[in-house]
Amino acid sequence: MLEFRTQGYNGYSVKYSPFFDSRIAVAASANFGLVGNGRLYILGLTPNGIVAEKHFDTQDSLFDTSWSESNENQLLTAGGDGSVKLFDVNVPQFPVQSWSEHAREVFSVHWNLVSKDTFLSSSWDGTIKIWNPNAPASITTLPTHSCTYSAAFSPHSPSILSSVSSDSHLRIFDLRTPASAANHLTLNVPIHTPPKPRMGAAAPVGIAPSEALTQDWNKYRDTIIATAGVDRVIRTFDIRAPGQGPLAVLPGHEYAVRRLTWSPHLSDILLSASYDMTCRVWTDGSAMGVPGQDAMMEPQNMMNGGGREMGRMGRHTEFVTGVDWCMFGAEGWCASTGWDERVLVWDARGIMQ
Amino acid sequence: MANQTGRAAQAQERLSQVSNHLGGVRTAKGKQALLEKNPDDIVVTCALRTPITKGGKGGFKDTHAADLLHGAFKALIERSGIDPNLVEDIAVGAVLAPGGGATEFRAAALAAGFPVTSSAKSINRQCSSSLQACVDIANAIKSGMIDIGIGAGAESMSLNYGPQAVSEFSELLEGHKEAANCKVPMGVLSEKMAKAKGIPRSEQDAFAAHSFQKAVEAQKKGLFDEEIVPLKVKWTDPKTDEEKEIVVSKDDGVRQGITAESLGKIRPAFAKDGSIHAGNASQISDGAAAVLLMKRSTAERIGQKIIGKFVQASVVGVPPLMMGVGPAAAIPVVLEKTGLNTNDVDIWEINEAFASQCLYCIKELGIPMEKINPKGGAIAFGHPLGVTGARQVSTLLTELRRTGQKIGVTSMCVGTGMGMAAVWVAE
Predict the structure, then answer these.
(1) pTM for this model (two decimals)
(2) Is B64 part of the annotated catalytic residue set?
(3) Is the ipTM of this complex over 0.95?
(4) What is the DSSP letter of A197?
């Protein structure tokens, strides 16, 4: 396990470069992101451990970052002052571009993985904005009317994106739909819907809505999205059957789940980071095929859709807020960051059982 | 400095957001969370009322409560455009109606065009009956028992007010001190409370006169027109005993030219050295009001125009003799439940049962006077007991919308010692 200290700054997000296996970006904030400056670290993984290649300071807290998919030196930040900034590793000190349209804290930024020429941001002001890095103003604004903690483009389509927000709903927008009163909203799935009752198990009871904080598109199955949040439960949804309720329900975290990410290598593996100071690796049960007769008899397995926790990493000593997989090399390397001012780089295979 | 305070507020908001994450399955609180629009919000798509008229001599003196309710229902169906077949339950607050009015109100719903499948009930929580009716419907929607419902109120104090409204207490109840206090007349106990809390008559008269002046002004500007449904009723002229058909379109208890000085000349009603009189207490009145409630997702699905949402309500008991402090007890509870500060509320509709008790509550809560009952209150246009709760909703939401403000609270003291309060957001 490799370690780096973000002295004086509490981590909020960590992202591996999509171009280099040795480069990591960390968005961090002074004073736990409540008040004060933000700092964007560009870290290099070297034979001598993790070194800070560069850092950028910002006036307000930083809550998220996303690497450009088209330029290996550029990356975005999500700012507490409502700004979205584009930094270039080769340009010292200041961002090459800054956009201030959001009325409140920006919580997520995400680059379009398919067309690579647009990116999005989501904010506490209840909107998602779509941007072109070369344009001074946003292209489109999609209202959610609810503090939107996370929005992300589909890795399979340039015009489909999803969001989760504090109203406990997963929304899917399709930018190809005609501009209308619906603002490109094509699906609005209540996350707290209980799973469909299955044979042999008691009908699930209703669950209160709770804030959804994170989500991620599966990299192999183009209709599967995982969500998680304040109710501590990870769920997966198939957007082809939104009325069906969650496919997999994965309870286990002891506090709210702050970040979720699907493995870039294995279609059923998820990694989560939580306020309970752990990162956990999960399988949603989909890679096991049809559950066997024995598994069918276990009511617990029925409820969970066959998924389970495969292992946990408990080395952080404060809330874990960011986690990401390395896309290159052996298929278990990942990085995590949290409020303990640390970035940890570790191999998930070491904890999976 | 201003920047500093802005920063502090922002830090506080970020901190409360994180603490919400840690609180487990508990929905976010505070002003920001309140203003969010969620698909499972309970929203209001129509809130209206009949005029409120003077008991015994006003426009509705010969009209039954159920007939007033019938008028409100018909107008609600017409104005909202709701398909009556979609309304699953109707709750009607009423205090004085014999038998709670349950039979007549169900009949009024049927006569107004609701199908037999729309159920109806009556509710009596004294002066907060129709707020309770709205809250009951909202809770039934929230729990999934129904999808669409109406909270309403109807009262004819002209026909039903009097000694017959309360039966004699048994020896058992008379023998228990606090229980026996439930029977003490409102005026008498409010007089005692005004004395105990030290609310001088001059302040009460000034407050009452201001209520009249605000109502006159609002009437002049037509600020009640949106919430009021004119009603055609039969009315017997007391001079000629001739029965006529008249259209009532205005609150007829509102009087021009009332000042603190003119009220100062009226003799106290309940004690020789007292401070309470007809001019600084609520009027005896007739009227009806109705509020159409459903989930936001339902409203969007069936194309109903959303005018506001119901957020949360509270009910608290207080000593029966201190009935008037009810709002001061219930409001902090509802603010705590919603995470609001007193400053976050734009308009307060606090029922003016008596100027004395309303003033006490305002002082106790530290509410600026200009945010209280901006169109006047029960002292100016009346307090038809079971109607007031639903009446306040229509008054509040129209004024919030007109002035571009957002958050409002309705509250009232409740006979026998209770207070009720509710938070609403205009959209």
Answers:
(1) 0.62
(2) no
(3) no
(4) P
